[in-house]
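Exercise 3.2. Students should predict the tertiary structure of the chain below and write it as structure tokens, then compare their answer with the key that follows.

Predict this chain's 3D structure.
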Amino acid sequence: MRTSFRFTLPKGTGIRTEAGRKVTGTMRLIQVKDLVLIERDSQVQRGSGAFYVVLLSKVITELGQEKMITRKTIEGLSSADFAFLVDFMHQVNHQVIKKIPLKCEVCGNEYWGALTELGEA
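Answer key:
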């Protein structure tokens, strides 16, 4: 199962990268321990709206030429890039949950199938 996913930021402002290149990065899947640690964070507990900032700083493993991905890195993103990353994070984490490995009993071909839950379109 894939656990990391490449992305390209739509704007890429505020992130160091090579001149003329788009800002790319890698995001890993969210782990339960990420959510537990974030709930213990004092800024998040105060209801400061920092939940996604903290979560993104934990699950983004590469971003342009940044050496470390911190809250400050995420706070420096444009609103378009921040919204893109939140949407991308939801997409990859939910996509993994809804895909299951299948194997054809006739030909032996292996592929990924989509799991549709009752009530989904």
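Discussion points: Residues 79-97 form the longest helix (19 residues). Strands lie at 4-8, 24-28, 60-63, 99-103, 110-114.
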